[in-house]
Amino acid sequence: MTSTVPPTDHQGSTTTASDGLLHFPPSSALALEPHLPPPTLNPNSSSKPGSKPFVTLTFATSLDSSLSLAPGVRTTLSGPQSKAMTHYLRSRHSAILVGVGTAVADDPGLNCKILSPSGLGKGVREQHPNQPRPIVLDPSARWKVNERSKVVQLARLKQGLGPYIFVTREGMEKVTAERRKMVESVGGKFVCVESSLDSKGEAEERKTTGFVWEDVLRTIREEGLDSVMIEGGGSVINSLLTLEQAGGQELVDSVIVTIAPTWLGAGGVLVCPPRAIGKDGQPAPPVRLRDVSWHPLGEDVVLCGKILR
Ligand SMILES: NC(=O)C1=CN([C@@H]2O[C@H](COP(=O)(O)OP(=O)(O)OC[C@H]3O[C@@H](n4cnc5c(N)ncnc54)[C@H](O)[C@@H]3O)[C@@H](O)[C@H]2O)C=CC1
Ligand SMILES: Nc1nc(O)c(N)c(N[C@@H]2O[C@H](COP(=O)(O)O)[C@@H](O)[C@H]2O)n1
Fold it and tell me: Is Oxidoreductase among the key words of this record (predicted)?
């Protein structure tokens, strides 16, 4: 099901033609630069494996912290300008990650629809060459990805890259040869996320979410991807924020949130991690951002910052 929260297609003019390609002005892009992976990290490079990719946590939210009207309801929150901003972010990261809940609910494209700047100079409308690698966290291989999935169709059309679907060893056993072949035929693959040695906390994390973040980020790096934007959905974002809240692990490098001027009401998919409790049993200091900047884009505002540690 798809739902658009009115008003959405208000300010117009970032999509300028029927090809659906978006324009994000260089002046707005410049303002985001301090919050993006260093430009030396080439979005399409296959760099040597290291410890962790650059991680940007980015999503669009309502004023009541909802990502969507309800689980399974694709909800448009971003206006045209902030949508173009998100697609610009996609051109600046090697990978884009969502949880399987989002893949099933939204059937997302996860490509970059920004106009190529080199084409623009010559008056040619062509798609940006930097396409992020879509990653879907699907521990038990429940996403029935197929030829009709938007991400597969876009990869076939060479308008995006084939998805990497992260599964556990047990999940991998459930993947049929047919499905594996289909994903591989568009340049994607199923990737087994091997678990590192378990601490008690990690075993708990794996039990509740399917994956330990450290393992996921290590695997992304091992795949030669040096930056990733994590888009959602609610469970993915909340589990990441819970770890940031607990301290000790510094996973998120940058946070970029689009805030849309609407309340979705009760029943939405919320960004709302559980309150942290300190060793003394009292509420621990909440997660907060530092180096914050606010960027109005159309009727939305985009908040950028880094997690205060
Ligand atoms: N407004 C926005 O920017 C966005 C909105 N959404 C919305 O979010 C909703 C989907 O959110 P959810 O149902 O919460 O699903 P989700 O997309 O967060 O996926 C959750 C699943 O991911 C898997 N997973 C693996 N490792 C995990 C980990 N470490 N932490 C958490 N999950 C892990 C688990 O199987 C879990 O069930 C949809 O309605 C979608 O439209 C999704 C992305 C962005
Ligand atoms: N930035 C942003 N604004 C919204 O209003 C949204 N609903 C989302 N959702 C995310 O974008 C994915 C869909 O986009 P494509 O089909 O890939 O163009 C969706 O799955 C969410 O991850 N984001």
Answer: yes
Provide the whole-model pTM.
Answer: 0.93
**Per-residue pLDDT reduced to its tens digit, 38-70:** 876 555 555 554 579 999 999 999 999 999 999
Q: Using a 6 Å cutoff on CB, does residue 86 contact ligand 1?
A: no
Please list, in sequence order, all residues whose beta carbon lies within 8 angstroms of the beta carbon of residue 215, skipping any fewer than 6 positions away: 193, 194, 195, 196
ipTM of the complex, rounded to two decimals: 0.98
Q: Does residue 81 line the site of ligand 2, with CB under 6 A? A: no
Any long-range contacts for 178-182 (C-beta under 8 Å, 24+ apart)? Answer: 179/145, 179/146, 182/145, 182/146, 182/147, 182/152
Q: Mean pLDDT over residues 169-196, rounded?
A: 96
Nearest to 139 by CA among 162, 163, 165: 165
DSSP SS3 for 36: coil
CA of 97 to the centre of ligand 1 (A): 10
Entry field: residues in the chain: 309
Nearest CA among 136, 83, 134 for reference residue 113: 83
